[in-house]
Amino acid sequence: MTDETTDERVLAVPDLALVVLVGATGSGKSTFAARHFKPTEVISSDVCRGLVSDDENDQGASADAFELLHFIAGKRLAAGRLTVVDATNVQSDSRKQLIALARQYDVLPVAIVLDVPEGVCAERNAARPDRAALPRHVIQRHRRELQRSLRHLEREGFRTVHVLRGVAEVEAATVARERRYNDLRHLSGPFDIIGDVHGCRGELESLLGDLGYELRRDEEGRAVGAAHPEGRTAVFVGDLVDRGPDSPGVLRLVMGMVADGSALCVPGNHENKLGRYLAGTTVKLAHGLPETIEQLEHEDSRDPDFRARVAAFIRSLVSHYVLDGGALVVAHAGLLEKYHGRQSGRVRSFALYGETTGETDAFGLPVRYPWAEDYRGRAAVVYGHTPVPRATWLNNTICLDTGCVFGGALTALRWPERELVSTPAEKVWYEPVKPLVSEAPGGTDGRPLDLNDVAGRRVVETRELGRVAVKEENAAAALEVMSRFAVDPSLLAYLPPTMAPCPTSSRDGYLEHPAEAFAAYRADGVRQVVCQEKHMGSRAVALVCRDAGVARERFGATTAEVRGVLHTRTGRPFFADPALTDRVLGRLAEAVDGAGLWAELNTDWLLVDAELMPWSLKAEGLLRGQYAAVGAASRAVFPGVLDALEAAAGRGLEVTELLARQRERAADAEAFTEAYRRYCWRVGDPPEDRAGQSAGQLAGRSAGGPAGGAPDAPAPGADGREGLGGIRLAPFQLLAGQGRNLALLPHDDQLALIDRLIAAETDLLAAAAGDVHAGGAAAGVEVGDAHGVATPGRGHGLLASTRRLYVDTEDEASVAAGIQWWLDLTAAGGEGMVVKPVRAGARTAGGKLVQPGLKCRGPEYLRLVYGPEYARPENLERLRERHLPHKRSLALREYALGLEGLERLAGAEPLWRVHEAVFAVLALESEPVDPRL
């Protein structure tokens, strides 16, 4: 082609590649790069030379310049960025280093050669002041080296070579970026990923039928295609052939599905070997290949072109696919994260065969490197290749080869549902060399938590709030708690976030008032809120399983009969007695079953956020050391002080003001004592003994008189069934179940489900007591509070209801009703309420995440927080200067982390991924913030 040619040349370049521009100085490489690539994609040797020496023409700095160029190129390729090297690159040694760099990062090297006449190069250099003195022999040497290189570029390792000859062809060229063959991120499914078939056509047809696919048959009744009426796509992990009874039938069906667009397929090592055999390469006839060859020979007489179509099909298969926005990777033998979406012989080899240790086992088979044990990638990797007795998740990877041809089953994974569907083998078609056993721990036995997962400064990606950072010192504090005091990590799936208080009130006598909470949500554009009674107990998270088997299989519980866990907001066991924990979880599981939620939510386990009462049950040390001590001291001191002052006043001394002040202090101290006593009672009393007793009577008994004391342990059988007398669990949110994050359900739906739990327990207790007249409908709802708002019955069972009121923040009458409801609640001794948007995960019009809840505590309860005399005007004025922004930020960050952990848990992601979010919540709890907020 001559210089006068103006026909357009389209240069195909993969969207991830190392593009090497090759040409003599002055050939226009920099101009070409600037025209066709982004400035950030181009790394120029001249620029690097200037960076290290302040002179782009200083040839003495070339060694350092190219070291810098290779370093920058390596960083870009590691990050998956197309990279263009702008240098002469006319010498084979310089190109060799770049090809090695491409291989190191498993990207394709592409050469674009600018073959421009010597005179043009000389003219361009002469026009540049910094190159005007460049000797002509330099250009001539570059041209000679270029001409010698042209015939060898592909042999050097360049996958594609584009040669542009002459100025006109260079100027007419355009660069077209091509999506990599393995990059199918734009396809989101849903998918049905099918494990190794190995010629088991009958089982494949049955499995496709179970998955809902409709088979298409030819005139001879052979399956030649299948499609799903809902548009699902089947993805085959390879090893379609060998060992089984009908490899041609399997190929015909899969090839038809791929041709119709209803399936994708990656190659297995058995297809790779068959493809080489069909291409005429000498291969070892073993491992089922002879059977496949024999079956193909029978096929030749019926369909002479079948072999050619099979060979073309195998050649077309891509080593692996990246699907669903990068969330899913399918490869026959699995794939390390650094290979996802990459293209090289090394990637293809790993995808086909995995990696071996170089050893052989007792059966003479290669020992494979257990890459899945160390996998930490965010993409789920689905693979086959090594048969296992059952498919289980291991660190976000799953092997679907369940040995159908060996008498096991043919297994498929529904994605994104993460559901497994299996069809048992019709018979043992091929005797396995060794028994089907898992070579690596799977499912709940996955890789143990690693210190590197949580140590040091961490940044956790969340769906709701983006990147959340954890400081190193906070991580160290969390590690101390987690390693010494927390429950079994496999059962620790969630830690509740802290909650911000409502904005500070300026009303007389109030530090917190619901009017500010309603106004805050109104300002955020949240109209519908729910006010929930705030129980004064201890926060508890319950992981309850249908039975102990679910706890073992799904969560890896190590104790034989444990059906879950009950832990505090910092991950510590709630009860020291495992039997008591099991009784609480057992009752909760019965209520879930009675309410029909196992079936309705399609789950065998539930994660529940709740409040466990009485407060004295868990806060005994706090009661003894802080609250009861203050109450005891005031009762010991104030009577004598008041008697003395009253006697002095009787003698005519002027102590009126002092006496009044001390009487106020005594009253404040008495109010302080009454405030904490409301939340204490003796556990173990039968319901009939507790009924009718005032809160003060119960508190007096449980607190052991003026000084306070330890609550009694629950008496066995005190509630008539399981020894839970006096213990109350108030669930207020279902967090997660199998395959589903329930925390984003609207709160009205949440509370309706919880009402059903409470009604179901009421029915269970009534049935146990032989009360045929009691029922959930009657016992589950109590009507007629101060505003006629229906609230669930409070009963005498384990489960306690949470009273609530819905408020429209833009309706003055509704807001007034909400304020009055809070006033009545707190006047009756209640702690206060939590105001939440009805719609969970609410955002402002600008997309900012809204506080998930604002606590509004009553004035009497706040005595416990700020001291007996906090409500005096001078103290209130000082306390109003509290700094809320940090607390609000902390609440939002922990909320986002909690939701992220629940998403990962529901998505069956590996334990370390779930714990990344759980641990971060605990770490943030050690941030310095006023604990009274």
TrEMBL record:
Keyword GTP-binding: no
Record-linked InterPro entries: Ap4A_hydrolase (IPR050126), Calcineurin-like_PHP (IPR004843), Metallo-depent_PP-like (IPR029052), MPP_PrpE-like (IPR041780), P-loop_NTPase (IPR027417), PNKP_bac (IPR024028), PNKP_ligase_dom (IPR032380)
Residue stretches in coiled coil: none
Region (Disordered), start-end ranges: 689-722
GO terms for MF: kinase activity; phosphatase activity
Domain Calcineurin-like phosphoesterase: 190-389
Low complexity compositional bias, start-end: 709-718
Keywords in alphabetical order: Kinase, Transferase
Domain Polynucleotide kinase-phosphatase ligase: 477-684, 797-928
This protein's GO CC annotations: cytoplasm
NCBIfam families: bacter_Pnkp
Protein name: Polynucleotide kinase-phosphatase
